[in-house]
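**Reference record**
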Amino acid sequence: MKITVAWNVWNNYFDTALGSEIFRLENNSKKIFEEVHLISQGGYPDPPSKEYSQYLDGHFTIAYPEGLPLLKVGTMAKAIFRLLEGLKHAFNYAQAQGHDFVVITNADAWFLDLTKLRPLFETPEVQRAAMSMRVGWLTGLELNFGNRVPLPDDHFMILNVPECVRLGVFDYGHEARFFRPHFEHFANLHYVLTCFLQERVPKGALHIYTTLKDTLNQYGDFTGFNQLPWQYQPSFGFLHANAAQTPSLHRLRAAFLHDLGFTKYPLVRKYYEETSPNPKLFRHRRGVLV
């Protein structure tokens, strides 16, 4: 199986460096995938350093389309459109490499167990679908989010390259309707991503592979409806830690990687040593460090 992994990144290149080191060296030692290309993509003017891009096959600048009405609402629209353009770019990159799948996530969201990732790709549902995604778990008691609710997750999105080609999912220009959603002030990331899915992914071609009900926050509590600031999904080995906005999470993240044995890798070891987390701050709950 041949895959591309694409990290959407702003200027948190160190996050991508750690995630790509773990992925690259784990696959080198365990031979999970026959061919892996790791790329980062974003809109920050300065590229990553040689040290931070050493495990990557490329870093790409993603522009957002100009002149769209949504850009007048707020600067967040630029990030939303860069994500959508990044989806298309990652697909085009993987197609050019002759890869089977591309999985798209963000710089601070990592794959910590490749032995669980390949079986996910091999499930009949993912094999048949053009896109496979995580969708947040919501019940009636949890709908008190105002006009912004977590719907499709932009982390760990899987594109089945041959199926996307067959169905023409990415055969569009900037005239596509999802670039101009009706409810502009409602237009956060998840809303516009939903518009993209509704317009471009045919009925039956979208697979929801998890509703996040087994995800844990930094205290070991189940938190399937909330991505921030820490979310670990043990069923797939997915970690999303927003340490850039919550710096105190660096201590847990460093200890977490050490607990899983990743300090055998040079950048992770350097991160752990520089962070120097106090072991007394953590304990195991539900089988993971919290």
In short: Residues 116 and 202 are 28 Å apart (CA to CA). The first strand starts at residue 2 and ends at 9. The first helix runs from residue 13 to 30.
